[in-house]
């Protein structure tokens, strides 16, 4: 198995835990405060990770385009997290997590449009199954 697949599987497990433990952390506080506290912890953990994993010489290779795209990624991440936490505060974790995973369909389309990645029959079938799952689970 390729290393990136292993990383993706590990990410999947962390993401699965994230929603449940976040819901517990929101008990008695607002979604906004919970997200703020979580983000402070994320920032600290990522900075510690970077201090251990990033070669200081690599920082010199940063270009304007890196800053622009990573800033845009930060904006979209913040938007996702804000509304995810607002939903998590009042909704069911399983339903919210599945709706959030509908982002895979958006990612497929954006990767095709911006990165010129191929859309294969396998991707189309997977995206349709995700959308079908969204309708099945989100329907009340």
What can you see in these coordinates?
It is globular and about 55 Å long. With 140 residues, the chain is mostly helical. The chain is 81% helix and 0% strand. The chain has one domain (3-101).
Number of domains: 1
Structural class: mainly alpha
* Number of beta strands: 0
| Overall mean pLDDT | 93
Order of helices and strands: HHHHHH
Strand content range: under 5%
How would you sum up the global shape?
globular
**Low-pLDDT windows of residues:** none
Gyration radius (Cα, Å) is: 18 Å
Main β sheet profile:
none
Nutshell version of this structure?
By secondary structure, the chain is mainly α. Helices cover 81% and strands 0% of the residues.
Task: Give the arrangement of secondary structure elements.
Elements: H1 3-25, H2 31-53, H3 64-90, H4 93-101, H5 103-115, H6 121-138
Structure keywords:
6 helices, globular, 140 residues, mainly alpha, single chain
């Amino acid at each position: 198995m390729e290393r990136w697949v292993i990383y993706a599987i590990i990410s999947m497990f962390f993401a699965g835990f994230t929603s449940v433990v976040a819901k517990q952390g929101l008990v008695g506080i607002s979604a906004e405060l919970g997200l703020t506290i979580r983000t402070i912890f994320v920032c600290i953990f990522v900075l510690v990770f970077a201090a251990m994993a990033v070669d200081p010489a690599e920082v010199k290779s940063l270009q304007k385009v890196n800053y622009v795209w990573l800033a845009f990624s930060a904006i979209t991440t913040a938007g996702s997290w804000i509304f995810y936490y607002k939903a998590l505060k009042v909704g069911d974790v399983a339903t919210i997590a599945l709706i959030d995973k509908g982002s895979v369909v958006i990612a497929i389309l954006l990767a095709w449009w911006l990165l010129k990645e191929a859309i294969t029959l396998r991707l189309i079938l997977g995206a349709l199954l995700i959308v079908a799952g969204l309708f099945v689970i989100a329907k009340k």
